[in-house]
Amino acid sequence: YGKNTIKFLRHHKEGKKHFVKEVEVCTHLRLISAQEYLEGNNSLVIPTDTMKNIVLVLAKKNGIATIEQFAIDICKHFMTTFGQVAYVKTYVQEVPWQRLHQNGVPHVHSFIYVPDGIRFCEAEQCRNGPLVVFAGIKDLKLVKTTQSGFEGFYKNEHTTLPDRQDRILCGELFCKWSYGECRDFDFDCTWNKIRECILEAFSGPPDCGEYSPSYQKTVNSIQMNVLSKVSQVQVIETILNNIFYDAVDMKNLGVTNDKEVLVPVEAPYGFCACTLGRKKFIEA
Hints:
Elements: E1 2-14, E2 17-31, H1 35-38, H2 48-62, H3 67-81, E3 85-94, E4 97-102, E5 105-113, E6 118-126, E7 131-144, E8 169-181, H4 187-203, H5 215-229, E9 235-242, E10 244-247, E11 262-265, E12 271-277, H6 279-283
Antiparallel strand pairs: 1-2, 2-3, 3-6, 4-5, 6-7, 7-8, 8-9, 9-12, 10-11
Helix pairs in contact: 4-5
């Protein structure tokens, strides 16, 4: 059981400069006994309102240096404070506020919402077990207008999709990776590096791009790029929801539309998913 959707903004000042971190927190507990379910005995139950208040107080006392560290702080608090807690899991996602710049100069107290992917993390721990940290990015929409195709696929009497050597590749990306046991490293720097690896693998070199023969190959390229360049990542899960665009038929309007005006196909949509990891962690 637990408390979901604890939303708040943490604001602090360093001299004239202001800082904000707005987050949504979900905290789940499993107790050493199920007596509240089986017998109606609530003596071990930590009320979810108490859980909410603990999250808010920890934000006030500790601040939020990174969302990963904040998730770790929450897990450690429940595990060390309450002997009846057998398992704790905390999910934190961050609202994408970025400091506003005017003529290249960072503003001291103004911020802009930049929806270029939502950063999130999870921390979980069983009593007498290691504290494990996950992180990720979701709702990241990416598109490239060429260097993508799909051909040579299996065909039967129900196949109407033609082979395509040049198409728009667009998708909404979800990536979640495991850091394994909690270690002391720069979560911000590592997350930013992984994000760069994702964008690099999706798009290819800036002057020419890189051909994608399928959404599946693009997903694999993203995962391989992350694992090859970021040693802290042990396992990475990736889901790419496909967003299709169809060219508008303008023949009746007396206009030739050579993929210049397109409309999104909202449903149904396809997806591809894959989990890839270093051998010793997959086997474990």
